[in-house]
């Protein structure tokens, strides 16, 4: 394991999700140089003492080779904002840090790709792949051999049983349960509390009582 010092962080976003990530990083003794947010962040005590900048382009004041970015903007179903911001800064040569809470269980036989965010009390079992820039939120359970695509949001307390595979942009709502070996297509949405027993095509939405297919804009 390398003893090379970790680069300091610039946090994009100043809302609730960013505050959770900031707390994780502070407990890990990571240096956070700035929070980038157009909104007032003073009401969130976790940001106290951290420099506040208001424009996305303020990131450019930091050398791309001397910082890592963390995108603290939460993911809503079918919102492309997080991905748009990431791709903009990636195109400029910046890199995003992978954030893993010390209070999460992550199997050493899993694969966590760059920029993923693993929140407290979540469980990542053996053989799992978590795609780049995906969020595994508080208390989510990802069972063995699941493959989570890029830019997914697995919401709090969601359970994915073994060998579930999700494509890019999938959103699994809070408390949802997906039985084993299902396939979830691009930008598909599983509603909160749904117990899903069939695969979902791209752009489909699974509500508690039905599945609908909508055209993705």
Automatic annotation (TrEMBL):
N-terminal signal peptide: none
Molecular function terms from GO: acyltransferase activity
Chain sites annotated for binding substrate: 74
Site (Increases basicity of active site His): 145
Alphabetical list of CDD domains matching this protein: LbH_AT_putative
Family (UniProt): Belongs to the transferase hexapeptide repeat family.
Name of the protein described by the UniProt record: Sugar O-acyltransferase, sialic acid O-acetyltransferase NeuD family
The organism of origin for this protein: Vibrio xiamenensis
């Amino acid at each position: 394991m390398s003893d090379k010092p970790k680069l300091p962080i610039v946090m994009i976003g100043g809302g609730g999700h960013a505050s959770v990530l900031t707390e994780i990083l502070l407990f890990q003794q990571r240096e956070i140089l700035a929070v980038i947010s157009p909104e007032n962040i003073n009401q969130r005590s976790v940001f106290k003492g951290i420099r506040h900048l208001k424009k996305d382009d303020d990131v450019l004041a930091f050398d791309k080779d001397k910082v890592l970015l963390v995108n603290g903007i939460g993911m809503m179903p079918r919102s492309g904002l997080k991905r748009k911001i990431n791709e903009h800064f990636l195109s400029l040569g910046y890199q995003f840090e992978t954030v893993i809470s010390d209070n999460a269980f992550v199997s050493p036989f899993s694969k966590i790709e760059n920029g993923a965010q693993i929140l407290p009390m979540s469980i990542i079992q053996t053989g799992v792949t978590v795609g780049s820039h995906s969020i595994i939120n508080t208390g989510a359970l990802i069972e063995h051999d699941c493959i989570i695509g890029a830019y997914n949001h697995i919401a709090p307390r969601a359970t994915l049983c073994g060998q579930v595979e999700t494509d890019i942009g999938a959103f699994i709502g809070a408390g949802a349960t997906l039985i084993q070996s299902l396939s979830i297509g691009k930008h598909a949405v599983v509603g909160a509390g749904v117990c899903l027993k069939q695969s979902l095509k791209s752009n489909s939405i699974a509500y508690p009582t039905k599945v609908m297919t909508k055209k993705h804009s």
